[in-house]
Amino acid sequence: MPAYINSAQSFNSGHLLKHPKLKLAAALLSVALISACGGEDSTEPVASAPAPVLSPAEKYSALLEIRTLGNPGKVATTKDGNTVFLSVSTIVDSATQKEGNGGIEIFKKTATGLEKTGFIPVNSIYAHGLTVLPDQSTLAVAIGNAGLALIDIQDALKGKANPVYIDLGKNAGTFDLVSTPDSKYIYTANEYGVAAGASTPGNVGVIEISKDARGKANGKLLGQITTGASTIAGIAITPDGKRVYAVSQILLPNNTLKVAGLNNPAITKQTCVQGDPNKPYPHGILTVIDAQKAITSPSPAAVLNNIAAACSPVRIAVTADQKKLWISARGENKVLSYDIAALETTPDQAFLSAIDSGGSAPVGIHLLDNDQVIAVANSDRFSNTGKAANLTLLKTSATASSPSIKTLQTGLFPRGLTVSPDGKTIYLTNYVSSTLQLIAN
Fold first, then answer.
1. Is residue 373 part of a domain?
2. How far is it, in rounded angstroms, from Cα 21 to Cα 45?
3. Alpha helices in 37-143 (DSSP H)
4. pLDDT at residue 315, as a whole number
5. Which of 391, 402, 397 is nearest to 440 (CA)?
6. Three-state secondary structure along 182-248?
7. Range(s) of the domain holding residue 403
């Protein structure tokens, strides 16, 4: 069973009048109101205030935290939501206190939370982004410099998984990944690997997935696409699988890359700062990739456009209707929105808005409530303590000055955000605290 280290219950304001002193105060207030309205001669009833109607996002509250084996990266679930996979890095041996390889913790969803049912080690100290392929056969995991791991789900549930590893090049730093809707291709965000013929660190890997006679998955690297900028930490794919989006954190000086939006000061900066204030750096970019061209020609020829994306863009979320795209700009303490159609037709006008993230150094983002709300994991990773970290829920229609819907306390360095298929549970990984936090509505 998992170790539940804390829990929280929603506060019900309807319980206030059960306290004796508050009952008396309420009675005296009622007498005063009747007297003000004409005492005994008043026959007009006093209407009670209607109960506030809460949106689904306002109902979210912390449920519990589960101690993890190592630094947790992200959660992926099966389509029915009953099986939960969690990537963990840097597992410390309890006997020797030495850091070891990472892996995948497996949980079964229960009425009260999660029950741990298994663990799958991988051949890397790191296990970061992960996804269940849409055909529900395979779990794909980004494992840093070791590349990509493919794990058969049925074998994993039986406790006999044997991961298949795909090399994505020297010092790949594979951090995140997405799958096409037909489960035949995977695109990876390789944070540091240098693609053939490129000079900047970071590339998008294109992997073809095949099945053997037993239905077990294998993978073949078709090629790697440089964005022309540095350090790719986030990747997303449209629901129809036609476009892939990647964010690179830094557009290096003296580059020859064609980038849209450079005349917009909201997304173009040369003095981005994180960590060391004495080391400013330029803004990052959003890259639009034709998914089919990336398969047939995995090279810069598959890149449709590059657009400025403010300081340290690190994660991407795409709306279900494929009309808008959101980015967490870690170095701006903001989330950015872009018009997806304009990214290809009029990229200089594609940027729509920048909204305060509700905290410091936002990383993970996820859309909720029919894309009306965006959840933001504010990591606070560059402060001395990290104690100002939080999870903030924002209206996607918000303006720069509008308040957030709700802010919830988290552990240290909240990083990965996933929402259960039924939309009722947010899975949040607290990387430094080594906990998985469940937030339910």
1. yes
2. 25
3. none
4. 98
5. 391
6. CCCEEEEEECCCCCCCCCCCCEEEEEEEEECCCCCEEEEEEEEECCCCEEEEEEEECCCCCEEEEEE
7. 360-441
In a domain, 399, yes or no: yes
State the pLDDT at residue 331. Answer: 95
Assess if residue 401 is contained within a domain.
yes
User: 21: part of which helix (H) or strand (E)?
Assistant: helix 20-36
Q: Would residue 169 be called left, alpha or beta, if left means φ above 0 and alpha means ψ between -120 and 50 degrees?
A: left
Q: What is the pLDDT of residue 390?
A: 97
Rounded Cα gap, residues 249 and 34, in angstroms: 64
User: Quick one: DSSP state of residue 53?
Assistant: P
Which segments in the chain show pLDDT lower than 70?
Answer: 1-55, 398-403
> What pLDDT does residue 52 have?
54
Beta-bridged to residue 438, according to DSSP, are 64, 427
Task: Using DSSP bridges, classify how beta strands 203-211 and 373-378 pair: parallel, antiparallel or unpaired.
Answer: unpaired
Going from the C-alpha of 156 to that of each of 120, 160, 167, 183, 301, the distances in angstroms are 7, 6, 21, 18, 38
3-state secondary structure of 14: helix
Structural domains in the chain (count): 1
Block residue for tokens 């939309």: 423
pLDDT score of 91: 93
List CB contacts of 424: < 8 A, sequence separation 6 or more.
Answer: 440, 441
Exposed e or buried b for every residue in 100-109, given b needs 16+ CB within 10 A? ebbbbbbbeb
**Quick one: pLDDT at residue 311?**
97
Q: Give, rounded to a whole angstrom, the gap between the first and last alpha carbons of the chain.
A: 23
161 within a domain of the structure (yes/no): no
Residue 13: per-residue pLDDT = 33
Lookup: tokens for 388:
């100002």
DSSP string, 299-360: SGGGEEEEEE--S-EEEEEE-TTSSEEEEEETTTTEEEEEEHHHHHH-GGG-EEEEEE-SSS
